[in-house]
Amino acid sequence: MREKVLDTERLAARHRPQGHPVMHQNWGKLLFMHWPVKENLLRALIPRELQIDTFGDSAWLAITPFTMWNISAFPPLIPPIPGLSSMHELNVRTYVHLEGVPGVWFFSLDANSAAAVFAARTFFYLPYFNAEIELKQNGNRIDYELRREEDPGAGFRASWTIGNKLPQSQPGSREFFLTERYCLYTTKNGGLYRAQIHHEPWSLQEAELVDFDSDILAAAGITTPSQPPILHYAEELAVDIWLLQNLDV
User: Fold this and answer.
1) pTM (two decimals)
2) Which one, 144, 155, 168, 181, has least CB within 10 Å?
């Protein structure tokens, strides 16, 4: 199995996939919270076919709270449906690759839309949970609070301030490794699947935590790191999503 992903392969992952996407979404008010962790702390939670993607000799754990809008289906483009076209979401994730194709592995995803949770579980085999989520913004401060409604119960509360715009992430940098991800991996009944996504490169900004309290990592069977997270913020991004592919590995 491949141990490392080349920078050229990370750049190639940004190319728009062939065929037609099945969904469009806008993501925004998004906070990347990252911690370096030892690879062996995550290995048992990830399918053996996937290699854990590392940077600086560390695996990386992330919590990502954000909001979505303009959710619509392709093809043909179906206009957003009132009540189903926007929601808040939070995911817990790490980074993996399969034979040089880097992507995301989700430990959990929470959303405040029962319809979206059902669809994601059914068509993308993702570990979504129903949750009550509230996002408020006052100037450059965002307050985000989540309470999961299903077992295992979990909560998340964070407030952060938005800072200056950062330079565009470059291949080989930590920021590029942590944020430039263009596919997800998932599994069902022993099969491994990959779904590709496409969007413009992230436009990142600085962020600073004002308040943070969460047991959402513990609910996924992961010890919450003791050190402060590395933060990046993104205001808005348009995303297209493709159907799952069975990787037959």
Assistant:
1) 0.95
2) 168
